[in-house]
Amino acid sequence: MKMSEGVEWTAHACVLLAALPQGTGLPAAALAEFHTLAPAYMAKHMQALARAGVVESVRGAGGGYRLARPAAEISLWDIVEAIEGSAPAFRCTEIRKDGPCAAPAGSFHRPCEIHSAFSRAETAWRAELKAVTLSDIAAMVASKMTAQRRADMAAWLAGKLG
Amino acid sequence: MKMSEGVEWTAHACVLLAALPQGTGLPAAALAEFHTLAPAYMAKHMQALARAGVVESVRGAGGGYRLARPAAEISLWDIVEAIEGSAPAFRCTEIRKDGPCAAPAGSFHRPCEIHSAFSRAETAWRAELKAVTLSDIAAMVASKMTAQRRADMAAWLAGKLG
DNA sequence: GTACCCCTACTCGGATAGCGAGTGTCCGAGTCGGAATGG
DNA sequence: CCATTCCGACTCGGACACTCGCTATCCGAGTAGGGGTAC
User: Fold this and answer.
1) What whole-number distance in Å separates Cα of residue B55 and Cα of residue B36?
2) Which of A28, A143, B70, B71 could pair with B135 as two cysteines, CB 3.0-4.6 Å apart?
3) Ordered structural domains, chain B, with CATH
């Protein structure tokens, strides 16, 4: 029951993208460099985000990834879904339909009580993630940022955006 | 991001134990047989529940597993924690402390915004699971059970508890 | 001077190894119950 | 008939292979941008 490391990587990368001027992006190598992460592996995760429609990819010189829609319309759940998929963590295999006391398949009240309890829990979990958008996080991060770090970022971005 | 199959297995097994007369139990082999599951693997999972204090084990002839406390005091979260451990699914590795724009380690507002958002989501998830007890599930299952199945179960249990 | 073409460099995308956690099984340690035995 | 002892069977517990998915990497496909050339 552990989440892929890629979720953390891409979440931070998307927050960085959200801080950029509208319409601009960064290549995967730069997104990895910003947090000192393995470039090839970061590239793989960004592909997943592109497939899911969270970011758009631009090939060729000066290309890279940029958010596919405004940061206020991208939630943490969108990122989790892109990396991990939308399948629930708890998979009900309906084991109650087998065994010496099993009733005929159609006679059960479905879904089973255990399954529905876990479904409720996951729905609550997803609701919390859907309530947090990239713009929320970017705003909070920006409000806590020191002037020094803000200057460092501006200088670094200037070198990347050319 | 998928949960161990053992959670489903042991959850159903515990509901069965909750339906038994107070103080009585069943061996792991019987718990597996009831849902046609691999006996050895079920035994392994029941060991985890015993280590976590959710069930008590009794060795020797006529022994087996029984709930360590009343069914109303055992939640689904207790079972998940026993099988999966209590570590959160999202592990923050603090990647923000590295990179060309990283500030000194102590200067960050902690925890990071992404981390706290995932923590809130997992807290909500756990709260839902903690709100559901074995007695809740057992009561719902019992209320939906047909007379035929109730008789089958009584006969099967008589053969096991014999 | 301008328009066109080509070529280089850059970036994404998918295909390919490596590794660790979950999956699945088995055999030894420990214990209870009952049968056999002697008083 | 009853108490004691011993034996057998049963059950848990941990140690041992195996599989699958996440981790990590590299190379090919495709494209933008700039320099060169012809008009």
Assistant:
1) 21
2) B71
3) 5-86+133-161 (1.10.10.10)
The span from the CA of B85 to the CA of A64, in Å, is 39
Question: 0.90 exceeded by the pTM?
Answer: yes
Q: Which residue is nearest to nucleotide C23 (CA to C1')?
A: B41
Q: What does the DSSP 8-state code read for residue B59? A: -
* 3 state SS of A72: helix
Residue written as tokens 């953390």?
Answer: A8
DSSP string, A78-113: HHHHHHH-SS-SS----GGGSSTTPPPGGGS-SS-H
Q: How far apart are CA B15 and CA B9, in angstroms?
A: 10
Q: Tell me: the pLDDT tens digits for A89-137?
A: 999 999 999 999 987 766 666 789 999 999 999 999 999 999 999 999 9
Give the angle subtended at the CA of B132 by the CAs of B130 and B138, to the nearest 5°. Answer: 145
Tell me, yes or no, if A44 comes closer than 8 A to chain B by beta carbon.
Answer: no
Q: How far is residue B133's CA from residue B131's CA, in Å, rounded to a whole number?
A: 6
Which string of DSSP letters, residue by residue, matches A9-69? Answer: HHHHHHHHHHTSPTT--B-HHHHHHHTT--HHHHHHHHHHHHHTTSEEEE-STT-EEEESS
